[in-house]
Amino acid sequence: MKIPKQAQLLRIFIGENDRADGRPLYEAIVLKAREMQIAGATVLRGAMGFGHSSRLHTTKILRLSEDLPLVIEIVDDEEKIAAFLPVLETIMTSGLITLEKVQVLQYGTDNE
Fold this sequence. Notes:
This protein is of the alpha+beta class. It has one domain: Alpha-Beta Plaits, CATH 3.30.70.120.
């Protein structure tokens, strides 16, 4: 799979407890991105964060450690990211989505 030097980074901020069709939302997003042959997706788990409700989610307070923040980063060309955005609208009920232009310096090797 080729990815252009100029690409887009789609960043999705959700909670660990967010669900889509009974399974974790992060899993639904990553599997859909893979199905649509997006170049790459990574899920990052945060140690602390808050969102629109200003409710603090942290590993330091045991009772709040169940819904830690997650960030999903997805990189591909602008067209593929644009095609993926309507899919996100159908499976997400809340969260924050950002887009930024990125420069890809390396993606895989010639042996793949």
